[in-house]
Design a protein that fits this description.
About 70% of the residues lie in helices and about 0% in strands. The protein has ten helices and no strands. The chain has helices at about 5-15, 30-70, 95-100, 105-115, 130-135, 140-165, 170-180, 190-200, 205-215, 220-235. It is flat.
Length: about 240
Amino acid sequence: MSSFQASWQLQNATANSLGLRKSGDKMGIPTIFILFLIFLFIFHHNLKKTEKLTAIKRKEFWENEEKSMFTRKSQIEDTNYIVPDISGVKHNNKEYFAELGHPELFKYQELIFSLSKEPMLNLSNMSNSEIRLKYGIANFSHIEACENNYNRLIKAIYLLGKGYFDLENYSEAISVLEAGIKINSDISDHILLLAELYAKKKDSFNFNELKIYSENLESLTKSKLSNGFIDLKKRYFI
């Protein structure tokens, strides 16, 4: 029986016992008052329950934080490190981009090739305390550096891909942006830009594959991605 049904039966029983309602009578002011009291009781009960759960979670959080500060160093498995595949990214010289009027793209390109040789990790699905508990406090600064390498790389890949897109060099833009997807970039603008490139080519297969990829991301921008794919589908495929 739901809380609403229980409350309603309690209200009826109370009203009848107090003679507040006769058969066929409409709900009177005393009955409304009783319902209000019942509502306050249920609200107070749920509030206390929520506060108790919050207190338990807060206690668990600080216990994990304290424990993580004393966790011994643990080996980071080689399989956790990301090895970017940038074989599809052309290595153009500085003059090439200068002639295009976008010398800043050379900087992004060089950053991609440089960072691809550095150790990198993507542990965005773990909290800081979870990372320390698993790998130890002594590894934390190394992990932070590896995560920074990863985040800088996916940003540089997006910026170079966007640069090629703006220059209408769509084939190069696709090659660059696909390198980011291979290492699980979750930058929404990156994903939607690549989706638009597929849509321009009427490449429904890769468009749909990328849509599935976006739906499986643990991202706060899922709504933006979903709306973006809907808009692109309307513009290019319907």
